[in-house]
Automatic annotation (TrEMBL):
Molecular function in Gene Ontology: DNA binding; sigma factor activity
Family: Belongs to the sigma-70 factor family. ECF subfamily.
The protein's name in its UniProt record: RNA polymerase sigma factor
Residue ranges the record marks as coiled coil: none
Keywords linked to the UniProt accession: DNA-binding, Sigma factor, Transcription, Transcription regulation
First and last residue of the signal peptide: none
UniProt xrefs under CDD domains: Sigma70_r4 (cd06171)
Biological processes annotated in GO: DNA-templated transcription initiation
Domain of life the protein comes from: Bacteria
Naturally occurring in which organism (per UniProt): Paenibacillus xylanilyticus
Length: 192
């Protein structure tokens, strides 16, 4: 569904909201989970994001994609949630499953080999490598990890990431490059 008409919308109907949730619900939930590492908190934040989108659609000006707008709401809602007393008293420690229904396609440039028609064995090995790489990414400092996630998994452009994180495009490029270098070095060390 093309959501460009929302740039002038003052309200949205339930069908449009349902379509937005179908199209972007997994992205919002996964990003909330990435930021909180809690399924319960990701559920709660995701619901809040779509409530805010529904009630605040007049603030969507179409200057960025709807996906970027929703991820920005997700990030801001999570940071507000983190400040709440409930969040600070909740438990942490769950592991983060990164692979989506779409599989490892979003991180192809970091996978060790490409196969036109992979065998079952090659597919299993590739998935193991993807999980190992994401383990490395998730161990990076937040400033690198978040940019790698937004760029590789959510396929946001440098400008979209810069706008969303309120940093310069140059900073995004630098952190992305340094983050990839850190991942490559750690990957090479693990596989010596």
């Amino acid at each position: 569904m093309d959501y460009q008409f929302l740039a002038q919308a003052q309200t949205i109907d339930n069908y449009t909201l349902s379509s937005m949730m179908d199209d972007y619900g997994n992205d919002v939930w996964n990003y909330a989970y990435f930021l909180t590492r809690s399924t319960e908190q990701a559920d709660e934040i995701s619901q809040q994001v779509f409530i805010q989108a529904y009630s605040g659609i007049k603030h969507f000006r179409g200057e960025c994609s709807l996906k970027t707008w929703l991820l920005t709401i997700t990030r801001n809602t999570t940071f507000t949630y983190r400040k709440s007393r409930f969040f600070r008293s909740s438990l942490w420690g769950e592991t983060l499953p990164i692979e989506s229904e779409q599989g490892p396609s979003h991180i192809r440039e970091m996978t060790p080999a490409q196969y036109a028609h992979p065998s079952a064995e090659a597919e299993v090995i590739s998935r193991e490598h993807v999980h190992e790489i994401w383990d490395i990414v998730m161990a990076l400092p937040d400033k690198f990890r978040e940019i790698l996630l937004l760029h590789l998994k959510y396929e946001l452009t440098m400008n979209e990431i810069a706008e969303m994180l309120r940093i310069s495009t140059g900073t995004v490029k630098s952190r992305l490059s340094r983050g990839k270098d850190k991942v490559r070095k750690q990957w090479e060390e693990r596989n010596r």
